[in-house]
């Protein structure tokens, strides 16, 4: 009875278990969270029943703040009107989310499986974990809540507690301290190698999509690997390794030889990341154009011989651009049908980013 | 019932006394201290402990609880318009927050009790909601969860098709009107001598009277005889429905009417409550150590983002503005006709009528009349208000204008009918085929086409015969049609008509 019932019914609809005709009304709503100075959008599914309403674009609205006619609005307008129920006084908190929390949220929303690190790359590390309560310990580890509770109990049971003057003074016997025990944790290392086509056909929007994707991929992998390294390679007809900032801001013109990036990635792996100690995740983003069929064949050979046998998973994300033909994804699909180690995801628009992240990370590899 | 801690109870009594001292007049208000999970649950139910089973409450709950667990937002207060008023405090909030909430809630309670737009609402809605839940549960037991839920979904998608002003106007029902019409026959003058009859009631006159009556009857044969905006009521009475289906429409319609005044007075209601919490907190309640925390919470609630419209902020500022204007006598003919800017800046007649005026405003106005009468050009400039529009060329929302008239027009447009299209039943026997004709009173903004089509399907499913909707898309008058099997079609009609004559037209400023 009650809200639990409604809640599970809602979840069933979202997952498509019941009322399949409702799939079309399910939208990925978003909650806005904040990380450092960036706002991140957290997906929450919602079901929007159809109703007669105005289209938002023609409607416009009233806002408040600085700005002259013609200035763009910062951020999307929010629906200020709308049906007020017993409008609860809701307060947006300026919460800062940690990477850890973001990853939790992402994992929960997209129902991502935990990653199983490759077996041989484990190194066990002993750590202390504070999980217990003890009657003795250093003052620095004093557990306020349980000390207070014990003191309160003592006061009440001895009849000296006055609600009007609720002063509690703990004595030595009330004090409780946090205590630890050693736990063994496997320490695993991972490296993500991002490769991106920066030839003329990749525009700003395409790069923004790659930036958002890589943010979420990093967030998720960091949750599973304590030591996560990232390397960045840009390529047009030639490839070079760059830092993160350059990676997202470079625009080149010229042709595209995808194999140049794959070769460079191979060299990096061979030099710095022995397979038996590292989990390796190469991701390649492009609009799917390659210079020649011959180069494509070279890429396939590199994948066959070097990458797929050795990496955890090879991700290929294809963003839609005005000029790209999207041929490369087709070639890959033909070459590696049903290969678990290669994930191909097509990202047509920003809205598809979450689906694509699910493609990439949904296998638990 | 109340389970406040001794300290909270002490403050409740104190704040109640302060509120009454300022002249606020509330129903008895019962505060309950509940956990965050309970508050999320109650909030999903619109403030009520029990509602009928439906997934959309689960959706609300999911969003509220996720957002709380991730630390993105939390609910401070919630209050229900009933007698006695119920209000909830969240366990674990700081003392200063609890005091703020109590002060704010008393503002709401006063508004619920005294604002005339709330007068027809059912103050025993807790019981009504619980009864609704029982009835719908009975139907789900009898007819199956899926059948009942599917029907509820259809009705909910028409939930906004009610006539918000109807509770305030006594209208004749369709049946009464028919009875009246039937009662009339050609009345002849009384004749004492038969031979005079021809002269007193000449046959030509009798014939013309008969003709007139027939014409009247023909005219009223159109059904409904005048357009109806309460489409839910219309469907409930005249669509071929089972009893349980009629009852479900009645329930959802009832609840929609219950919540309607809260939508009609959102700016005023939040503004009024914020005005009072701010006044009471800063004058009477806060102690020194709480000032910063209060300021932080208060400013968080009042914050306005560029694209957002915060009813709390506009409401509180307008009430303060009205109070100042009536204190200083900045109204009336003399003030309006004065065009000396320096004199206006110094204007102070020391009338001291501000407090009295805002109490009068809270009794008589709703958001539309409130904005229409009290939004001034000075106020818009001071609060840096502007109108934004979507620019198709750049693909983003842009500041359009800071012109006062445009701001007012936009605001009134947003508030009239809650910024939703006005749709009415025009003819229930369209083209003599038992089809329904709905018309959209187009005022320059199109409906969102995909939503419109899906909603039309739902109307047709309930009506059981094809449904037509006359509207305008891209400046082209169109009729959309949905067959009873859900098949959609559309066709264009003649020329663009000028905006329809409508009393709710927003261009009256």
Topology:
The complex is a heterodimer of chains A (365) and B (509).
Chain A: H1 3-14, E1 26-35, E2 38-47, H2 56-59, E3 61-64, E4 89-92, H3 99-110, E5 123-134, H4 144-157, E6 177-187, E7 189-197, H5 204-224, E8 227-235, E9 239-242, H6 244-249, H7 258-272, E10 278-286, H8 293-310, E11 314-319, H9 327-335, E12 342-347, H10 353-361
Parallel strand pairs in A: 7-8, 7-10, 10-11, 11-12
Antiparallel strand pairs in A: 1-2, 5-6, 8-9
Chain B: H1 6-21, E1 29-34, H2 36-44, H3 55-69, E2 73-80, E3 85-90, H4 95-114, H5 125-143, H6 145-156, H7 174-182, H8 197-200, H9 203-220, H10 231-238, H11 243-264, H12 266-285, H13 291-302, H14 311-328, H15 332-337, H16 341-346, H17 354-364, H18 367-374, H19 377-382, E4 385-391, E5 396-401, H20 404-415, E6 423-430, E7 435-440, H21 449-463, E8 467-473, E9 476-482, E10 488-492
Parallel strand pairs in B: 1-3, 7-8
Antiparallel strand pairs in B: 2-3, 4-5, 6-7, 8-9, 9-10
Helix pairs in contact in B: 1-4, 2-3, 4-12, 5-6, 5-11, 6-11, 10-11, 12-14, 14-17, 18-20
Describe this structure in words.
The complex is a heterodimer of chains A (365) and B (509). With 365 residues, chain A is an alpha/beta fold. Helices cover 33% and strands 26% of the residues of chain A. Chain A has a 6-stranded mixed sheet with strand order 9-8-7-10-11-12, sandwiched between helices. A two-stranded antiparallel ribbon of chain A has the order 1-2. In chain A, strands 5-6 form a two-stranded antiparallel ribbon. In chain A, helix 3 (99-110) packs across helix 5 (204-224), helix 5 (204-224) packs parallel to helix 10 and helix 7 (258-272) runs parallel beside helix 8. Chain A is extended, with a radius of gyration of 27 Å. Chain B has 509 residues and is α+β, with helices and mostly antiparallel strands. Chain B has 21 helices and 10 strands. A 5-stranded mixed sheet of chain B has the order 6-7-8-9-10. A 3-stranded mixed sheet of chain B has the order 1-3-2, with helices on both faces. In chain B, strand 7 (435-440), helix 21 and strand 8 form a beta-alpha-beta unit. In chain B, helix 4 (95-114) packs across helix 12, helix 12 (266-285) crosses helix 14 (311-328) and helix 18 (367-374) packs antiparallel against helix 20. Chain B starts with 5 loop residues before the first helix and ends in a 17-residue tail after the last strand. Mean pLDDT of chain B is 87; it is low at 495-509. Strand 3 (61-64) of chain A pairs antiparallel with strand 4 (385-391) of chain B.
